[in-house]
Design brief:
The protein has 262 residues and is mainly α. The protein contains 14 helices and no strands. It folds into 2 domains: 123 residues, no CATH class; 122 residues, Four Helix Bundle (Hemerythrin (Met), subunit A), CATH 1.20.120.
């Protein structure tokens, strides 16, 4: 509840404090539960600080093993944190700890919680800032489901800081939207296999897009880099450039789905 209250009030400092306090108290609780109730206040503080840091490090490693093709554990840092705590604990507390491997096995779920809760809290401020840069969309005719889904996902990826996915979905959005628009105004058989490059070369597309043809090609190129050359995309499209691609995609959608003047 404290976290929700902090979120509702946009108190990011309080959110981080709540997360840190929870981490510091969880790990000592595990030892207290085993009967280690006579730790000194200094031991409790040291165990809390160590637990917080180890949870973060364990969480990164456990997560990487599940979602990365090149997982990496920060073993040197884990052992350093462990040893620094041991060097400062009382003999009684030190003897009750067991081993770092036992802690890793016991705290897997909590470590993943720590890893991702901190990531979400860190990105929340950026999400709010990015949303603030977007203008409210004007009333539009309703696009088909493919356009709506790609448009929404492109924005979610942009807000959460996934630039490669966002650019690829901007391209998907434009391709689905232009296909729908061309089918509505031309006799030419536009199939689901007709790609964006092919559609942009049609006279019907040039008439539909007018002065926005250049923007459409920029979105296409950015999406191609994102899909086929992620390493080059990262070099060519820093955050400010991605923001432009998202903005141009929005302009194209507004143009293609603008309500007719009454």
């Amino acid at each position: 509840m404290e976290m929700l209250d902090a979120f509702d009030s946009a108190d990011f400092v309080k959110m981080m404090d709540v997360a840190n306090d929870w981490q510091q108290t969880f790990w000592p609780f595990l030892w207290w539960r085993e009967g280690n109730t006579d730790f000194s206040e200094n031991d409790r503080q040291l165990l809390g600080e160590m637990g917080k840091e180890l949870k973060r490090l364990f969480g990164r490693g456990i997560s990487a093993e599940k979602v990365s093709v090149a997982p990496r554990w920060q073993n040197d840092r884990i052992l350093e944190v462990w040893q620094n705590c041991l060097d400062s604990l009382s003999p009684e507390a030190k003897n009750s700890l067991g081993s770092v491997l036992e802690l890793m096995d016991f705290g897997a779920t909590e470590s993943l919680d720590s890893r991702y809760s901190h990531e979400v809290l860190e990105v929340l401020r950026k999400i709010v800032a990015r949303v603030g840069t977007l203008d409210k969309l004007p009333p539009l005719t309703t696009p088909n489901r493919s356009v709506r889904a790609a448009f929404d996902e492109a924005h979610r990826c942009y807000l959460y800081g996934f630039p490669i996915a966002s650019a690829a979905l901007c391209r998907t959005t434009l391709e689905a939207a232009l296909r729908e628009a061309l089918r509505a105004v031309t006799e030419k058989d536009i199939t689901s296999e007709t790609d964006l490059y092919g559609m942009l070369g049609l006279q019907g597309a040039k008439r539909l897009l007018g002065g926005l043809c250049g923007f459409a090609d920029e979105v296409r190129i950015a999406g191609n880099y994102a899909v086929h050359h992620a390493d080059i995309f990262e070099q060519k499209y820093p955050p400010s450039k991605l923001q432009e691609i998202v903005g141009k995609t929005r302009m194209l959608i507004e143009h293609l789905y603008a309500l007719p003047v009454a």
